[in-house]
Amino acid sequence: MQKALHIRTTVLPGGKVEIASPELEEGQTVDVVISPTPTPSARSAWQIISAGPGQRLFKTAKEVDDYIAEERASWDR
């Protein structure tokens, strides 16, 4: 039994993919699995999260501390 081949190729116009290998015999039945290669993002994970809906309520730790202090003070009123 022949081992699996790993061939990287580029999609041609019209969404066509061409595979050629001297290890393949004419008339041979093969299974073909297409797995797109992920493209790297130019943005950092933090930039992607920050751009999403529901922006952060606080921008600094001091803003968080001030908010918590204000909330605690309102409990005693």
Oligomerization status of the protein chains: single chain
Q: Class by helix and strand content?
A: mainly alpha
Distance linking N and C termini: 80 Å
Main β-sheet: number of strands, strand sense, barrel status? none
Rg over alpha carbons: 28 Å
Q: Percent helix among the residues?
A: 25-40%
Describe the protein's architecture and organization.
With 77 residues, the chain is an all-alpha fold. It has a domain at 45-75. Helices cover 29% and strands 0% of the residues. It has 2 helices and no strands. The chain has helices at residues 45-51, 61-75. The longest helix is centred in the last third of the chain and has 15 residues, at 61-75. The N and C termini lie far apart (80 Å). The model has no long low-confidence stretch (mean pLDDT 86).
Can you give keywords for this protein?
mainly alpha, 77 residues, rod-shaped
Summed up, what is this model?
The protein is mainly alpha-helical. Helix content is 29%, strand content 0%.
Q: SSE layout and pairings?
A:
Blueprint: H1 45-51, H2 61-75
